[in-house]
């Protein structure tokens, strides 16, 4: 008979990491639950028998930089769950992932961003022209429209026109509906009908964008995808995930940055100084990381913090938890772009990972950073955004960390 596994071999965790009520607590307040789990139980925390939170940057670096096949992004457990757009690079593994990633690389390179910068400045100018002194805006709505427009020009090579609104509505509905608890898809509930309609609108719009792409124009992501002549469904899935992952996260990052600058008007005044906008964007993504948790699955047993985690364990790595850990960031709750100036770094090289890291790190990180910097700087040079009831702002940890309640009065400069 095999000896029973000593209890101490499992990492500690809330309710011994063995209770399904952990899942319920997580569902109610994921940010609070993960933060207190890490602060109370340490750097390796059992959330359930199959789910472990890793909160030490040593472990995070090892897992994200893994090239020895210790972990997979899409493991057996992940594959069992519902997964939209399965043919996209983001949802692929192994040689298939490598081929898809290489295909997009030239279109997302950091030296290919002049067009993006131009589109961003033009987008801001057009938007600000529709505003007037004293207008109250929903900052997230405005930034969403801007990010979808600018992102699509860069990815597809042309403006979306009226289709932009359809895509924004569809993506917002998909995000909202997929992050809420839901009855099985075959049940004719109102939510399911709405989700189906949004998916259909999304599909039709993507199909039109793909069909209309001029043959031979391959200096953008869509053109690169089409150049290889892959099946339609593969192009559709890739374009869908690029637009969804790129737009929602970037709009959130921008909104959080403007919210944070609203609380420190003297920092908003410095946005045009060399290096300041980049530092402010970095700092906003530290405090409000659009990707607030990512996961991996162990393929082989993994040693972490003195524990052996068996194969098949889902590892949670939370940017929200680690970015707000005082061991790596003094005054972790404060918005201090200054901490990044003059070569400033966190207390550990893997304590800051808004874009993930390693081979599966964000393919659009340069694009996103540049877009956020250029848009925020252009906005701050034209207007002052006076916060309206900032005390009501709160994060909603959906697929991305959504800012809720960011409103501002427009004041021209
Ligand atoms: C502020 C904006 C953004 C944030 C915070 C962000 C964050 C992330 C993170 C954390 C990952 C890694 C996920 C993991 O390791 O499990 C990721 C992957 C990815 N991101 Fe982004 N992202 C942003 C913008 C963009 C943009 C603009 C694009 C493309 C146009 C993009 C495309 C991708 C793709 C394709 C992957 C999958 C890479 C792979 O699996 O090899 N992202 N992103």
UniProtKB/TrEMBL annotation:
Xref: Pfam families: p450
Region (Disordered): 1-22
Keywords of the record: Heme, Iron, Metal-binding, Monooxygenase, Oxidoreductase
Cofactor: heme
Alphabetized InterPro entries for the sequence: Cyt_P450, Cyt_P450_CS, Cyt_P450_E_grp-IV, Cyt_P450_sf, Cytochrome_P450_monoxygenase
Family: Belongs to the cytochrome P450 family.
UniProt protein name: Cytochrome P450
